[in-house]
Design goal:
alpha+beta; FAD/NAD(P)-binding domain; 2 domains; 6-stranded antiparallel barrel; 31% helix; elongated; FAD; RsdA/BaiN/AoA(So)_Rossmann; RsdA/BaiN/AoA(So)-like_dom; Aminoacetone oxidase family FAD-binding enzyme
């Protein structure tokens, strides 16, 4: 048998592609063309024993579907503008409409969209039911290991359990992040067999390990403006948000979003520092004047008390330890020392030594070189009838539903292209 389509991977992108390649109702809703009902034979091959395994963990189990906020910093790629040829500012509406077409009620939480149930299982069940409705075959617990074009321009797909043949192939194997949930770099081997360049997978959306000893800060959370800098203090990225201190690592959404830049810099052999402004609403001059006034009005109070209104008490202790002062009272500090105290709060610096491993990363950076991908169809420009989608592409998004949006939009583009094909 020759399938019309074989999809490698039953994650969000792969299942979306399979559904959009076979579903007349979804085609009509989103393509706004005359009915071109097609009967296509489709097979999904998935290495995990269950479909959508990684989806269950998305958004801490709540499954953040999409996000209405859209800016240039939402996606990273070596081919900088490629993501924005694929996905646009209003595409969150398309993702939400697609979910609703599958029977999922969507709710808005300040621009973050979730299933109304706040359960990722709702999305997985909806995908599963539509696959069954569209008579899409699914083989689980089977690994795609080889891919070869035949003389008749069909493709032979080799798995650990046999051989299959198809007119169209969608590679939706995902990235190497979260191997416990099925993360793998197997897709890179398939790209290699097709002669498609790729960037090796590296962790992204992950913690950053630092060389400073900060066990006393474990469990502390603090809002900060975080700046990624190199050894010459050049700024590479900056974002405001909540930082979580976890022993030898910095975590939290703001750190996750900056981990792509930090990871690339480390990979290039650069020194990486994170500079935390713990009070970004107050400039350093005003902070210094506050400390002077505090010293005048409260000379008997401790240094810890002076910082108490600005930062968490454990952070105050850490900052004072970095200053290495023996003084205990604010009256014992001179103006130069007060300036240093203000500087520490505005520029608390940590030196990054590594990113967390793939097992602790939410997504991977790296994947197929997008210069070889048509952004309208997700088709390889140098290989007929082969599509690459989702995390296997060299594009990764920040936290907040952007990676799931990417998976669905790329899956829809590939699926509709196949639906349109003869």
């Amino acid at each position: 048998m020759i399938y019309d389509l074989i999809v490698a991977g039953a994650g969000a992108s792969g299942m979306t592609a399979a559904i959009c390649a076979t579903d007349a109702d979804i085609y009509k809703q989103f393509q706004h063309k005359a009915d071109q009902t097609r009967k296509r034979s489709v097979l999904i091959i998935e290495k995990n024993k269950k479909i959508g395994k990684k989806l269950y963990a998305t958004g801490n189990g709540r499954c953040n579907l999409s996000n209405s906020s859209f800016r240039l910093e939402c996606y990273n790629s070596k081919n900088e503008f490629f993501p924005y040829k694929v996905i646009g500012a209003k595409d969150y509406q398309i993702v939400n409409q697609f979910a609703e077409q599958l029977g999922v009620a969507v709710s808005d939480e300040h621009g973050y969209y979730y299933p109304m149930s706040r359960q990722a299982s709702t999305i997985v069940w909806a995908f599963n039911d539509r696959l069954k409705k569209n008579q899409i075959q699914v083989h689980t617990g089977e690994i795609v290991i080889g891919l070869e074009e035949q003389s008749d321009h069909t493709y032979c797909i080799q798995t650990d359990q046999g051989h299959y043949y198809a007119r169209n192939i969608v590679l939706a194997c995902g990235g190497a992040a979260a191997p416990a949930l099925g993360g793998t770099d197997a897709g890179c081997s398939l790209l290699d067999q097709l002669g498609i360049p790729y960037y090796p997978f590296q962790p992204a959306l992950c913690k950053l390990q630092v060389k400073e000893k900060m066990s006393g800060l474990a469990g502390v959370r603090s809002k900060a403006l975080v700046t990624v800098m190199d050894a010459s203090s050049e700024i590479h990225a900056q974002e405001f948000g909540e930082v979580q201190f976890t022993g030898q690592s910095l975590s939290g959404i703001v750190i996750f979003n900056l981990s792509h830049t930090a990871g690339e810099m480390l990979q290039d052999g650069e020194s990486v520092s994170l500079c935390l402004d713990l009070v970004p609403d107050i400039n350093e001059a005003d902070l210094y004047m506050h400390f002077r006034k505090f010293r005048t009005n409260n000379p008997e109070r401790s240094l810890q008390a002076c910082l108490n209104g600005f930062v968490h008490e454990k952070l105050a202790t850490y900052i004072l330890e970095q200053c290495r002062w023996k003084q205990e009272r604010i009256s014992e500090l001179n103006d130069v020392e007060l300036q240093k105290l203000a500087d520490q709060i505005k520029k608390l610096t940590f030196h990054v030594t590594a990113t967390a491993g793939a097992e602790d990363a939410q997504v991977s950076r790296g994947g197929a070189d997008t210069r070889f991908i048509d952004p309208e169809t997700m088709k390889l420009t140098v290989q007929e009838h082969v599509y690459v989608i989702g995390e296997l592409l060299d594009t990764d998004g920040i936290c907040g539903g952007y990676n799931l949006m990417w998976a669905v939009i790329t899956g829809m583009k590939a699926g509709f292209s196949i639906y349109d094909s003869n």
